[in-house]
Write a structure and sequence with these properties.
Layout lengths: L12 H32 L2 H28 L2 H24 L5 H25 L9 H30 L2 H19 L21 H8 L1 H16 L7 H8 L4 H23 L7 H21 L3 H29 L5 H30 L1 H24 L7 H12 L2
Helix pairs in contact: 1-2, 1-5, 1-6, 2-4, 2-13, 3-4, 3-6, 4-13, 5-10, 5-12, 7-13, 8-11, 8-12, 8-13, 8-14, 9-10, 10-12, 11-12, 11-14, 12-13, 13-14
Length: 419
């Protein structure tokens, strides 16, 4: 049952304003994502091209994500957010004009996907680490969970809207709508009243390098294990979503509106998972739930690959969305509770690499295999590998000592005191 604590971080004015602007923009982003994959598949009917456009969007996070995190720790995050939002808006506007004008070709989509990927490689760690400037630290896990809820609410509404709009008016207007949603982001950012950033402390000496976050994460067993789990689920689970247009068109013989429903059910499950996290008052043993959720994603993907009944597929996608978000959002919250702020950008860059970078590799690989052996076989094999690899990480996370997660206990006590 959802209680008042689930929305505690909304009591902060800055976070309320930021949350609303991001909610509008994220809807546009998910709309563009669905329209883009449908457009490239309509033009090429190729699983490889589906994988390539997904990979080009996400691969820069793998290549340049650490640099984006370094920027987030060295320069004002607010100013960086303004710059990357402008660039993302121009990307959507360009894609919309090309599509509406009838000039769009596959190479345009690929090039613009790569451009957006470079922007996101900087934007993601900046945005993730910016949240801490909007709230009190004791509300940080709740804010992360609500932020994830917002993204996945958009993942529910945006794709369903995009599927309907693509079927009615085509992909071009959807791209322009996404460009227009960035106006809400700019209004929200300029309405914030940000506190002055604290002065750098002596403990930061020697930690200004781009690799400092990697060193810190490797030394911390819980952070290291969570990042490994996120990377595994992203590589073998999240990347399977690039095959959804093939399942819709070939397995279920339906149109773009059904692709919107598919992605919407994933988003609905993700929203429920994020709200359950927001409802939590303590965070001890949460890493065990994360591990079990990863196993659930693997099993669900195998069942999805074997199924050819549309209604059952929708139920399975809901479960996949729920379990995936339990892995991603819970890992995000646990990691952010444990990292010092002067390394937050670089650690969240690592998180983005494990999440988005691994998806880029997986999408290109699975898209290629889908052309060779078919989407159902590809999804089934990927789900099976995810199941067995997650079991190994379950053992690791269940064996973590109390000293590895001790900071979470004190955090739970503080949230109990402020209820």
């Amino acid at each position: 049952m959802i209680n008042k604590y689930a929305f505690r971080s909304l009591r902060h004015r800055n976070f309320r304003i930021y949350f609303l602007g991001q909610l509008i923009s994220q809807n546009g982003s998910w709309m563009q994502s669905v329209a883009q994959v449908w457009l490239i598949y309509r033009l090429t009917e190729s699983g490889f091209m589906l994988g390539l456009v997904g990979a080009l969007t996400l691969l820069p996070s793998l290549l340049f994500g650490l640099y984006g995190g370094w920027l987030a720790d060295r320069f004002p995050r607010f100013k960086l957010l303004i710059v990357v939002q402008i660039l993302a808006m121009l990307q959507a506007l360009t894609l919309g004009i090309l599509t509406l004008g009838g000039w769009v070709a596959p190479w345009h989509i690929l090039l613009l996907a790569l451009a957006l990927g470079v922007v996101q490689a900087i934007e993601t760690p900046v945005r993730q680490s910016f949240i801490v400037q909007l709230i009190a630290r004791e509300d940080l896990p709740n804010a992360i969970a609500l932020n994830s809820s917002m993204i996945h609410l958009a993942r529910f509404v945006g794709p369903a809207s995009a599927g309907l709009l693509v079927a009615l008016v085509g992909e071009g207007p959807v791209f322009l709508i996404n460009a227009a949603t960035f106006i809400a982001v700019f209004f929200s950012l300029f309405a914030l009243r940000l506190p002055a950033m604290p002065a750098k402390r002596d403990e930061q000496a020697g930690s200004n390098g781009i690799w400092s976050g990697v060193h810190y994460a490797w030394q911390h067993r819980l952070i290291r294990s969570l990042l490994a789990l996120v990377a595994t689920v992203s590589l073998l689970g999240g990347s399977v979503m690039v095959l959804m247009p093939i399942f819709v068109a070939k397995v279920f013989e339906r149109g773009p509106e059904s692709l919107g429903i598919f992605m919407g059910l994933l988003g609905a499950g993700s929203l429920v998972g994020a709200l359950i996290l927001a409802n939590r008052r303590e965070f001890q043993l949460l890493e065990r739930r994360v591990a079990l959720a990863a196993v659930t994603v693997g099993v669900s993907l195998v069942v999805f690959a074997l199924n050819d009944i549309f209604v059952i597929a929708l139920a399975i996608l809901f479960v996949i969305g729920f379990a995936s978000t339990t892995v991603y959002a819970s890992s995000n919250a646990l990691i952010q509770l444990l990292v010092p702020d002067y390394l937050r950008g670089r650690i969240m860059a690592l998180f983005a690499i494990c999440l988005q970078g691994m998806v880029s590799i997986g999408q290109l690989t699975l898209g290629t295999f889908a052309d060779l052996i078919g989407a159902p076989w590809t999804a089934g094999v990927s789900g099976s590998l995810l199941f067995f690899m997650s079991l190994l990480l379950v053992v690791v996370l269940f064996k973590l000592q109390k000293s590895d997660v001790g900071e979470l206990g004190s955090m739970s006590e503080s949230t109990d005191r402020i209820k």
